[in-house]
């Protein structure tokens, strides 16, 4: 890769290798040395975006989930989206009820191994696959039952299409979770979907805001602000706190890109967005790709022979490998699987729900902005939707690529060698003493100190006022500095003997001569007279 090669060059090269034309839904993701995820920006140099040393590790991911994945033009695109959603299911991002989970897993089984064959698939064959972060024998029996009785005869392409149709109906479809905390210190996950902005807490969706209701997004430090304009001219400002300023900036950029992609009609309508109202402060960012409507119009014009799909070798299945790749974690007992899974939770472990002993509220702080007179029960019943049987706690590893099968047992052994627990019970007992839990408790205590109880909203408003005052002071300082520079330049022009071409040209203009003789010289004589009067007064006294 050339040093000045742009991200677009690398992305086009990859899409050409995959024989992919509907490429606007995808992107390249990488992780910096501080474990912060980023999307590769196509208009900038690849090398300059990397803070690590080569070789660089990146991942090909779905960046903008299709509104209707079953309506994609080519099968190769549907297959790649299928792989992404299957990965989301394994990492706990695509959360759903048990009945839906069993059907999705059965579709994966049918696409991976084909029709049920008693000779090849013995009792308990579905337990050889890891579809979800947590399994149960009852769920595995349900998966096998659906696979045996309902999906016989479906080709891999048909099973994948049915999988996409089912996944698209779930409320966590397209969710790329960003761990945050609200003003009360409760853990939450923010996400941008094809349909709008989503806030998840516990096993409930506490906020869903359509894209046409989002008027503005900005961030300052670790604080993310979402401005919403709903019906009856009702305006709401949602405030959340990210773990780090870098994570907050990444959240803001993702929001800007998703809103532009799904909301706008044409890419020519895209504008550069600033994270601050003042031109000399904050970050500036502009989405550089096509929007969803343009992508769909372009896809409709594709006319070529469908490319051949090598399902076994194109993208090896890691979240749920095929029989040819061997069962996942086949040598690890069932009681150890969840402990192995916990060992790879590096990205969001510090913000897991288990780190907070208090129950998660059913409605977020946004309800405080509701018009008076509406009861909180009515508000929560309208806006809170249960999305699954369990809490939303995605195990989104920050590792650039999924962990290989043989690495999981090594990670488990390394945890045992360091005295780390390998069972769920031991994990829970030691969780309170881990650095991640201590960090989460420290962060939670810091936020609670800033926003204690019902006074959290007032503290947030006071913080906004302080930031506004600082912005005004900064503006005054810049103005004074500019005036000082102009005054210094004026003195040089009128009083110095510098005879450079630049100064000579300015001095010879009629405007400068008029200013010099009619305004500056009288002002200088008046100022000199006043100085002499003050000096004489001091001498006399």
From TrEMBL:
| Chief localization | other
InterPro entries, per this entry? Band_41_domain, FA, FERM/acyl-CoA-bd_prot_sf, FERM_2, FERM_central, FERM_CS, FERM_domain, FERM_N
Segments passing through the bilayer: 472-494
Q: Disordered: where is this region? A: 353-382
FERM domain residues? 1-266
Subcellular location per UniProt equals:
Cell junction, Adherens junction
Give the GO cellular component terms, alphabetically. Answer: adherens junction; cytoskeleton
Q: Which GO terms describe its biological process?
A: actomyosin structure organization
Supply the alphabetized keyword list. Answer: Cell junction, Membrane, Phosphoprotein, Transmembrane, Transmembrane helix
The answer to keyword Signal applying to this record is no
From which domain of life does this come? Eukaryota
**Described purpose of this protein according to its UniProt entry:** May be involved in regulation of cell migration. May regulate cell-matrix interactions via its interaction with ITGB5 and modifying ITGB5 cytoplasmic tail interactions such as with FERMT2 and TLN1. May regulate ROCK1 kinase activity possibly involved in regulation of actin stress fiber formation.
- The protein's name: FERM domain-containing protein 5
């Amino acid at each position: 890769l050339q040093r000045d090669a742009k991200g677009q060059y690398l992305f086009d090269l990859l899409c050409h290798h995959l024989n992919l034309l509907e490429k606007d839904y995808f992107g390249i993701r990488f992780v910096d040395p501080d474990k912060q995820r980023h999307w590769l920006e196509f208009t900038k140099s690849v090398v300059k975006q990397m803070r690590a040393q080569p070789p660089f590790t990146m991942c090909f991911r779905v960046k903008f989930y299709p509104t209707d994945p079953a309506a994609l033009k080519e099968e190769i695109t549907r297959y790649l989206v299928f792989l992404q959603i299957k990965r989301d299911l394994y990492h706990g991002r695509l959360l759903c009820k048990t009945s839906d989970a069993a059907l999705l897993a059965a579709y994966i089984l049918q696409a991976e191994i084909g029709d049920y064959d008693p000779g090849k698939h013995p009792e308990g064959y579905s337990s050889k696959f890891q579809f979800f972060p947590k399994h149960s024998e009852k769920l595995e029996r349900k998966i096998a039952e659906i696979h045996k009785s309902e999906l016989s005869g479906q080709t891999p392409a048909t099973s994948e299409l049915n999988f996409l149709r089912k996944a698209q109906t779930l409320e966590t479809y397209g969710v790329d979770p960003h761990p945050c905390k609200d003003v009360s210190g409760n853990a939450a996950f923010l996400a941008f979907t094809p349909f709008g902005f989503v806030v998840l807490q516990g096993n409930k969706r506490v906020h869903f805001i359509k894209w046409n209701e989002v008027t503005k997004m900005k961030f300052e430090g670790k604080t993310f602000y979402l401005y919403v304009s709903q019906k009856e001219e009702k305006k709401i400002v949602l405030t959340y706190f990210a773990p780090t300023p870098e994570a907050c900036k990444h959240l803001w950029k993702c929001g800007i890109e998703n809103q532009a992609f799904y909301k706008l009609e044409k890419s020519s309508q895209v504008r550069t967005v600033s994270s601050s109202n003042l031109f000399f402060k904050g970050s500036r960012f502009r989405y550089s790709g096509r929007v969803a409507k343009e992508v769909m119009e372009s896809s409709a014009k594709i006319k070529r022979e469908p490319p051949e799909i090598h399902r076994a070798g194109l993208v090896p299945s890691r979240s749920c490998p095929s029989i040819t790749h061997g069962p996942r974690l086949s040598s690890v007992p069932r009681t150890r699987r969840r402990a192995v899974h916990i060992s790879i939770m590096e990205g969001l472990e510090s913000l897991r729900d288990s780190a907070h002993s208090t129950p998660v509220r059913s409605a977020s702080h946004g309800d405080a902005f509701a018009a008076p007179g509406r009861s909180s029960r009515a508000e929560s019943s309208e806006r809170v939707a249960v999305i699954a049987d369990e809490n939303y706690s995605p195990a989104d590893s920050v590792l650039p690529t999924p962990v290989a099968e043989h690495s999981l047992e090594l990670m488990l052994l390394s945890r045992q060698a360091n005295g780390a627990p390998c069972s769920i019970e031991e994990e829970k007992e030691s969780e309170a003493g881990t650095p991640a839990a201590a960090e989460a408790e420290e962060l939670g205590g810091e936020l609670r100190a800033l926003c204690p109880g019902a006074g959290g909203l007032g503290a947030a408003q006071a913080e906004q006022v302080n930031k506004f005052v600082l912005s005004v002071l900064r503006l005054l300082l810049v103005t004074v500095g500019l005036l000082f520079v102009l005054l210094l330049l004026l003195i040089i022009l009128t009083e110095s003997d510098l005879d450079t071409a630049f100064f000579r040209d300015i001095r010879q203009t009629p405007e400068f001569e008029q200013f010099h003789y009619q305004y500056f010289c009288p002002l200088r004589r008046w100022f000199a007279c006043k100085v002499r009067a003050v000096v004489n007064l001091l001498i006399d006294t």
